[in-house]
Write a structure and sequence with these properties.
- This protein has about 80 residues and is an all-alpha fold.
- It has 4 helices and no strands.
- The termini are far apart.
- The relative contact order is 0.21.
Amino acid sequence: EKQHLMMNLVLSFYDQGVSALDQGAKVDDLVELAVREQIGRYKYTPEDKLKSEYDRILATLNQQIQETIAKKEEF
């Protein structure tokens, strides 16, 4: 299950990243998102916290992507 959830996080990052790029976000801003490290560390999550950590990281991803899109609109 852990590998499945981690793959979902990676694919969510990819899908949302492509969408953000389509909306004018910069690649450099997406590459620097702190959530990337959190996704990478997910593999060390204890089994009893998989779902809660998955939900937390996904929410963080959504927030950081939206902030990146909004940042583009500031310039």
